[in-house]
Amino acid sequence: MNLIGILDLFTLLFTMLVFSIILIRWKHQFSLHSKVFLIFSLSAILFYYLSNFLEWSGISDIFIDIEDYIAILVPLLWFFFLYSFFQMLSGQELKASEKKFRVIAEQSSMGIIIIQNGEFKYLNPAISKITGYSIEEMLNWNEMNIANVIPKEDLIFVMDLFKKGKEGEINFTPNSSFRTINKKG
């Protein structure tokens, strides 16, 4: 067995170890598509390194033609593997960030409403206390229903905030406030 055969064997074993650790450690965090792709990638990469090992150690060169095609794909497969891995990590960071936001928003005494595409997507408990409407009721609202809880004098200001928010140019100042009308009047 020559030095290249030994290096290919080492690379094969190391690759198997790395993929095994990653798949075992993070198997629940990868999406199904990522898992399927990772298994395909692992199989192709392992086949490539096994073929190299067999060729360079003098055992067999039966896979030499297929090996050349897979050799072209190996860098691309590594790239997609890394892409999937970083996607999984960024998904975890997003979930952690959302969890922090929820903890802060749920504890806030200020009313917080998140509106996407004209629909109420999130309301914290404080907004329910302020308006007297339940969160479930308000989740069925759209931005036009906001007139139920905003006095006419402040409604233009609030609708302007919605318009600016849709256009992506909203800048709240710490003093930005408006009055509300409770459900009971």
TrEMBL record:
Transmembrane segments: 6-24, 36-54, 69-89
UniProt keyword list: Membrane, Transmembrane, Transmembrane helix
Coiled coil: none
Residue stretches making up the PAS domain: 97-169
Pfam family, one: PAS_8
NCBIfam families: sensory_box (TIGR00229)
Record-given protein name: PAS domain-containing protein
Organism, scientific name: marine sediment metagenome
Lineage per the UniProt record: unclassified sequences, metagenomes, ecological metagenomes
